[in-house]
Each structure stands twice: as structure tokens, then as C-alpha cells.
């Protein structure tokens, strides 16, 4: 399965089925990040059950320094 | 107590500090500390997935002491700004948003139409909206009509350090304001802060003037003092300017 994360093609292993799995694969569950899947923001409480499909466009964003 | 009220929030500091362009996190931490700022701006960006664990300023902050003001920087349309604002709010850290819809890459001046539209939508969605705008009194009025919680006119182009270019427009905006007016962008020196506050602004938001100063920590303190001096000067009520001299010492009782 191929998805696009932050604008880049990412091949997924069979173990990565949900948003939770994806964040775990980057070790991001403890970080303050926000996830958008195909233009829809995914609430933190839904990560566990929110499945990922082939071709999904996912954005993982956070706060950076800015004025 | 001289309190700055923005929406449901109350602050004692009238200096809002941006968090961009600092050379390192230690300098930034010290600058934030001495500035006395209670509101800090941030931008929303993609996480760098090649290095997702690089040190992060937010992780050092005591979030009970600071209110985060994420911005919609990078947006060139109302739709983009609304999208960024929703992402920022979904962090669960804040409901404040600095609306910033840019109309031109070279000057970074705001697009007034997109700015007004994004502000209207975000007010409706329940955000506490602080809008970065041109120093246009009519646009400031329109923004207040759609319910923004603060209007933030630029002093001069973002990061230019030119200070207040159009004092007259700022004065017009301040005179009829029903929400706090925060002078945002273009501040170069503590004198600019003092000037803005003396004109009756409710606060000043700046970033580059501190972050890129030779000594950012010392400049952060200077800006804090500039804002405080200007505010006190405004509250105290300055004397009118006169064309000719008026002696400070008694003119009676001269020794002959």
C-alpha cells in the first residue's frame, strides 16, 4: 500500500493499518501533532480506529517558531 | 490593575512575542522570559518526518503560563487560512488564532478581502480571532463588524523594522476601536513600541526586531520597557505640543 505523507510517497507495511499505527511507526504518539487525512482533521481519540487506505493523503503538522 | 482583555482572556503584559528566527532555543527561552510576554505566536507546518524528534521550543514551555497564538502564515487565500486555523485548534492547546492572509510575496502585505473572509468564518466557528491587517481604518471597522476579538494593524511590512509609517491611520483606527488594537509587524526598536502605545494601542506584537537583534535577550527587555513606558505615558496624558517656549521656572521674583 502506498500513501502520501506530508507530500511524499510512503510505502506502508501490512502492520500499519490505522492512524495510530502510522504515528507509532514514527514514534509520534507522545508528540503534539495534528493529523489530517484526505483534508479531514482526525481527532486524537479516533486514531486507534481510523483506518488508512491506499492512496490516502495524510498531513502530520505541528507548531514551529513563527511571528 | 491595567488589564488587556482579548475575548475571554485577560493579560497583564501588552507585549506579544513571535517565536520565529531565533538563533537557538536557549536564547529564545531567555528572551521570552525577560520580555514578560504572556502570548506567544507560532506557525503551523508539516513535521519533518526525516527528523521528527529534533528539539522543539514548545516542549520547553510551561503552557500554564503562556497563551499560544498560532498564526495562519503561509496562507494566500481565506480557505488556506481557515484550514491552518482548524489544524492549530485541533492541537487542543489553544482557541486563539492570528489570521494572516498574505496578498503579495514581496511586501507580505495582507490581502484585505481574504483577511476579512477568513476572520468572519473563524469567528463563526468560535475561535478567538486576532486579525493581522493593513493599517486601514475602514477595514479595521469591517473586521470589528464581523466580530474579531482584536485588530492587529501592521506598523510597516513584516520584518522590515521601519516602525510606524502611517501614524495618522493608526490613530484613526484606535480612536474608534471597540476591541483591542495591537500593532503587529514592522516594529524595529523600543521607541517604536513606545510610540505605538502612546498613540493608544492596546499592545504590540513583534518578532524579528528581537530575534535578529545583536543581543536578542537584551532587546526583549528593552521592548518590554518600551511598551510599558508608552502605555504609562498614554495613561498619564501627554501635554499638547506648542509652537513656542513656555518657561519651566517661575517668571516672577527675578533677582534685580
Query: What is the CA-atom radius of gyration of chain B, in angstroms?
Result: 20 Å
- Average per-residue pLDDT of chain B, rounded, comes to 95
The largest β sheet of chain A comes out as: 5 strands, mixed
Give the strand order, joined by hyphens, for the main sheet of chain B.
5-4-3-10-9
Provide the domain count of chain A.
1
In what order do the strands lie side by side in the largest sheet of chain A?
Answer: 2-1-5-3-4
CATH architecture label of chain A: Roll
Per CATH, which architecture of chain B? Alpha-Beta Barrel
Helix count of chain A equals 1
Organism (chain A): Brevibacillus panacihumi
Protein name (chain A): Sulfur carrier protein ThiS
Keywords (chain B): Cytoplasm, Schiff base, Thiamine biosynthesis, Transferase
Domain Thiazole synthase ThiG (chain B): 5-250
Keywords:
heterodimer; A: 67 residues; mainly beta; Ubiquitin-like (UB roll); 5 strands; 36% strand; globular; B: 256 residues; alpha/beta; TIM Barrel; five-stranded parallel sheet; three-stranded parallel sheet; 10 strands; 17% strand; Aldolase_TIM (chain B); transferase (chain B)
Word description of this protein:
The complex is a heterodimer of chains A (67) and B (256). Chain A has one domain (2-62): Ubiquitin-like (UB roll) (Roll). In chain A, 10% of the residues lie in helices and 36% in strands. Chain A has one helix at residues 19-25; strands spanning 2-5, 8-11, 34-37, 40-42, 57-65. Chain A starts with a strand and ends with a strand. The mean pLDDT of chain A is 92. By secondary structure, chain B is of the alpha/beta class. Chain B has helices at residues 25-35, 57-60, 78-89, 112-124, 137-145, 167-175, 190-198, 208-211, 216-236; strands at residues 4-6, 9-11, 15-18, 39-46, 67-70, 96-99, 128-133, 150-153, 182-184, 203-206. A five-stranded parallel beta sheet of chain B has the order 5-4-3-10-9. In chain B, helix 3 packs parallel to helix 4 and helix 5 runs parallel beside helix 6. The longest helix of chain B is centred in the last third of the chain and has 21 residues, at 216-236. The mean pLDDT of chain B is 95. The chains are: A mainly beta (67), B alpha/beta (256). At the A-B interface, strand 5 of A face strand 4 and helix 3 of B. Strand 5 (57-65) of chain A pairs antiparallel with strand 4 (39-46) of chain B.
Amino acid at each position: 500500500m502506498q500513501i502520501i505523507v506530508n507530500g511524499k510517497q510512503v510505502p506502508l507495511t501490512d502492520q500499519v493499518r490505522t492512524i495510530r499505527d502510522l504515528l507509532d511507526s514514527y514514534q509520534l504518539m507522545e508528540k503534539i501533532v495534528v493529523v489530517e487525512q484526505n483534508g479531514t482533521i482526525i481527532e486524537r481519540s479516533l486514531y486507534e480506529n481510523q483506518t488508512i487506505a491506499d492512496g490516502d493523503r495524510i498531513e502530520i503538522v505541528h507548531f514551529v517558531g513563527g511571528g | 490593575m491595567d488589564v488587556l482583555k482579548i475575548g475571554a482572556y485577560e493579560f497583564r503584559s501588552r507585549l506579544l512575542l513571535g517565536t520565529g528566527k531565533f538563533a537557538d532555543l536557549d536564547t529564545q527561552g531567555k528572551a521570552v522570559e525577560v520580555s514578560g510576554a504572556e502570548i506567544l505566536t507560532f506557525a503551523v507546518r508539516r513535521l519533518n518526518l526525516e527528523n521528527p524528534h529534533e528539539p522543539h521550543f514548545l516542549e520547553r514551555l510551561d503552557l500554564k503560563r503562556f497563551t499560544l497564538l498560532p498564526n495562519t502564515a503561509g496562507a494566500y487565500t481565506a480557505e488556506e487560512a481557515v484550514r491552518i486555523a482548524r489544524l492549530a485548534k485541533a492541537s487542543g492547546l489553544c482557541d486563539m488564532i492570528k489570521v494572516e492572509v498574505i496578498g503579495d510575496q514581496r511586501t507580505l502585505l495582507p490581502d484585505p478581502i481574504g483577511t476579512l473572509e477568513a476572520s468572519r468564518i473563524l469567528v463563526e466557528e468560535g475561535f478567538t480571532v486576532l486579525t493581522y491587517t493593513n493599517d486601514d481604518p475602514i477595514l479595521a471597522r469591517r473586521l470589528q463588524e464581523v466580530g474579531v476579538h482584536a485588530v492587529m494593524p501592521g506598523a510597516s511590512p513584516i520584518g522590515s523594522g521601519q516602525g510606524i509609517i502611517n501614524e495618522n491611520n493608526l490613530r484613526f483606527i484606535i480612536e474608534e476601536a471597540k476591541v483591542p488594537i495591537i500593532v503587529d509587524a514592522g516594529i524595529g526598536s523600543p521607541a517604536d513600541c513606545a510610540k505605538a502605545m502612546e498613540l493608544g494601542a492596546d499592545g504590540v506584537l513583534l518578532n524579528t526586531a528581537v530575534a535578529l537583534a545583536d543581543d536578542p535577550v537584551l532587546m526583549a527587555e528593552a521592548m518590554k520597557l518600551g511598551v510599558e513606558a508608552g502605555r504609562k505615558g498614554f495613561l498619564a496624558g501627554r501635554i499638547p505640543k506648542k509652537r513656542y517656549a513656555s518657561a519651566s521656572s517661575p517668571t516672577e521674583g527675578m533677582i534685580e
